[in-house]
Amino acid sequence: MGFADRARIIIKSGKGGDGHVSFRREKYVPDGGPDGGDGGKGGDVIFVVDEGLNTLTDYRHKRKFAAEPGQEGGKKNCHGKNGQDLILKVPEGTVIKDAETDRVIADMSGDNKRVVVLKGGKGGLGNQNFATSTMQAPKYAQPGQEAIEIEVKLELKVIADVGLVGFPNVGKSTLLSRVTNAQPKIANYHFTTLSPNLGVVDMEEGFGFVIADIPGLIEGAAEGIGLGHEFLRHVERTKVLIHMVDAAGVEGRDPIADIHAINKELEAYNPDLLKKPQVIAANKTDAIYGDENEIIASLRAEFEEKEGIKVYPISAVSGKGLKELLYHVKELLATCPKEVTMFESEFDPSVMAIIDEPYTIEIAEDGAYVVEGPKIDKMLGYTNLESEKGFLFFQRFLKEQGILDALEEKGIEEGDTVRMYGNEFDYYK
Fold first, then answer.
1. Are 10 and 63 a contacting pair, CB within 8 Å?
2. How far apart are CA 216 and CA 226, in angstroms?
3. Is the Cβ–Cβ distance between 162 and 241 less than 8 Å?
4. Residue 130: φ, ψ to 5°
């Protein structure tokens, strides 16, 4: 693969440093108080968009990336040094997913220029923190919080405004090389035909847009046959689609059936893709007599009249009709929202660290079901229950962790109270 637009890597945050156990030793003080310092915080793993990158090649040769652990606390209340954060640079448009569940952790597009994907462990408190009036020389300190290690998939989803789709040999690459400047701002790759080929169309009045020739669509793409899914992944961000067909019938294909076939794939993968505005470029008019033929006429009857999708006869070779086509694309783009399509985050790896923690369920004197333990305590620390999103996230966590099932086993009924660290909820299925 010449163009790396996918990679799988293992990332690990820094473990928090352990708290220290020590006591002051001073000449005339026989039993100095506790002076064990706190451990340092472990480093975070942070993804950052680097405008200079346009592939994920850096992640092809190296698989494991780890932030630095925090140091242990020292004597004399010395705080352990914090671990260094690990900064991973990726091209804009990279979507980071949890490899195991395929859920999106972060989409490095739009305003997401810098995202902390894994938080470093908190440092443990030194023994000076555990002194009480009755226990003045505590011999224990708190261990640092564990590191989190997960495998993630990086997928580059091209950020192009316009997607050029069509079956092989209809002339897409000829069109792209003709309408885009030879030195596109996005770097000119020697692409394998499996990767989107990008170019920038510069129109006067400073209006330009990025166009991607998206190859590899084969019928059955939505089921993942052939390279279909790769193709469909790149279509997701585009705003306008140009269907390119061969109007001269050189390849002996049926252009109408081809357009329906491609739209069917788009719909099977994600029905929203069909909401994008489309236009049809009927290519190879240089090979026909006059400006119209029965193929173009039948395309107009099928798509312009029935669906309002415009048909533009063009010749990618001679350049005829291209100006009209590009102006129409420009008009369609003007009606689209400006911002990049973002993929919502569905998964927070920091929460994964909580999953192995224990919890207990007791029934209080007033009949409430009390759920406590580090699993709940930490989860509440991560979640903003005031926000609807946070609350739904918390509910999903309770369900996925089997906590709701455990409450059922204890005999909880609709309308009973669940109490967790001062938060009370009514239980409903």
1. yes
2. 8
3. yes
4. -105, 5
